[in-house]
Write a structure and sequence with these properties.
By secondary structure, the chain is α+β, with helices and mostly antiparallel strands. The protein is 29% helix and 22% strand. The chain has 6 helices and 11 strands. The strands form 2 sheets. It has a 6-stranded mixed beta sheet with strand order 4-7-8-9-10-11. A 5-stranded antiparallel beta sheet has the order 1-3-2-6-5, with helices on both faces. It is globular.
Length: 224
């Protein structure tokens, strides 16, 4: 499993020596609904995302929605659901919310469910989108691996840098040229789609995006 150094976003509160059940209680507290929490073996990071971060998250999510719909691919949205898995000890376990998440292969497993419980055998999302505003999410890769997420998109807002990562059998992530969930997409194509929204409202970008998707689907190199 990756041992990348963790680097917290500015404005993140970090608490250490936190029992897993305390983290779960804090996560369930209704007054904390607006906060994002990351728990890893006794360390709890708490942050409140900035507008720049949330805007990028919503646009990446919208892109996935529209591409999947255009391709006729069945999917289910996991949104920013809290995904967690308990460990073998009072301060062992992992938990985190994606900025956006989607089920493709495992979408049928969610039918009729109101909650997702990884410890009870429910699957993690097939696609996890993580947006970094001020700091890299590289150090969070062990969290995604511990939760069993097959594909992660890491987007750096300020640098406009995107990488697709696939989980290997060894429990590490390797860069991918194409998405496993939506093979028509490459990091370069996603960045091209996002650039269409520079300086315009999301409603206007959505109109441009639909036309871009239709045109992209006609490119011979993208259909193969």
């Amino acid at each position: 499993m990756s041992t990348a150094t963790r680097r917290e976003e500015p404005g993140t509160t970090v608490l250490r020596g936190v029992p897993y059940d305390v983290y779960v209680a804090l996560r369930r507290a209704r007054g904390n609904d607006h906060l994002r929490m990351t728990y890893y073996d006794g360390t709890l990071e708490i942050m409140s995302p900035e507008y720049r971060h949330e805007g990028a998250s919503s646009r990446l999510g919208l892109l996935v929605h529209l591409v999947a719909a255009a391709l006729g691919v069945d999917y289910e949205c996991g949104g920013g659901t809290t995904f967690r898995r308990a460990g073998a000890g009072p301060r062992k376990g992992r938990g985190k919310e994606p900025d956006a998440s989607f089920y493709f292969t495992n979408a049928p497993a969610l039918l009729g469910k109101e909650d997702i419980n990884l410890d009870a055998g429910d699957p993690p999302p097939d696609l996890w989108i993580e947006v970094g505003n001020r700091a890299s999410s590289q150090g969070k890769l062990p969290d995604y691996a511990a939760l069993g997420v097959p594909e992660v998109w890491r987007f750096r807002v300020r640098k406009k840098h995107l990488v697709f990562l696939g989980l290997t059998p060894e429990g590490t992530y390797q860069p991918m040229e194409r998405s496993r969930c939506l093979p028509i997409l490459t990091p370069a194509l996603v960045l091209e789609a996002l650039s269409l929204g520079d300086g315009v409202l999301t409603s206007q970008w959505q109109t441009r995006l639909r036309a871009w998707i239709a045109e992209t689907l006609q490119r011979p190199e993208e259909r193969t």
